[in-house]
Amino acid sequence: MLSSVMASPKGSRSQKMKLPIFTRKGTLEVPSPTEKDWSKDDEDDWVFKDPDQEQDSLPQPYRMINKMVNSLFDRSWEMIEARDTSKKAELRRTLPTIYHPLRESKLNTMPNCMDVSQDYVFIGGSKGFSIYNLHNAKQLYVWEKLKVDVISIWATDLGSEILIAPVDEMGIVRLFYFYKDGLYLIKAINELEDASKQTTCIKMEISKGGNFAALLLQGAGDIWLDVYKLPKESWIKEVQYPQLAVNTKKKIRQQLQLNTPDSVTADSLDTDMNISFRGDVKLSLPVQIMKIKPPKPITVWLRSTSSFPVA
């Protein structure tokens, strides 16, 4: 009976099946009883052996040729992956647009700050600020009537006019109104005659459209926010009448310039169109509508409860 089982097809088939064998390189060691003492073996220490390949290994020189072909395929695949990675990185890379300068303008002094509005550049520096044309980089006007430097400047587009707000080293902010070829001083917002009571402007913001202005002021150990309403509708009306007289003079000057010889260049014409400061024109002052102070710290007083009787 035992011989019949050994001779059955199922038994012979199981004898013919060969499973892969894992063998470890080097000498074998008896592991320690505790698992934590077992060494972490690398996968490289284990070799996968196919029983069929042990019996049917290729003879030389075909075994060497097989190794060379496999090595060639591996190197080719690595090169393909490297090229594909570099191509994907090149496609993901977005080159920024480079804008080359149109013209170079040399400044006499080192600027401290600058701002851009419409077609003009406003640069704050020593004892005031200057106005430059954004297209031809020409200096149009210089206002230098301060004893200290301008450390920050804001320029807000109001439509056909520009509101300029420079802040000097003393923290005093001044409002200027720039309309066509005229520059008007509106007011020094936080300038006081008593230097001991002088406040400092830390930050200033003008709303979009120029209807409101907010100033963060500091002085005497306190800090607060002042909000002003800017009467820009009144400003445009107050500068229109003197502007009519200036336009008449400008037309006469332009007619004279058209009759000049051909030797007169366009640069000289631009110089004649410089901005002028209109200190004699008084504009409406901003109206303070709000003053916001930080809340005072809350002081909590703790009262002791009645003592419990001791047993």
From TrEMBL:
Residues 1-58 are annotated as: Disordered. The lineage of its organism: Eukaryota, Metazoa, Chordata, Craniata, Vertebrata. It comes from the Eukaryota. InterPro entries: NADH_UbQ_FeS_4_mit-like (IPR006885), WDR93_beta-prop (IPR049547). The gene is WDR93. Coiled coil: none annotated. Residues 1-14 have a biased composition (Polar residues). It holds the Pfam family WDR93. This is WD repeat domain 93. It comes from Bos indicus x Bos taurus. GO terms for biological process: electron transport chain.
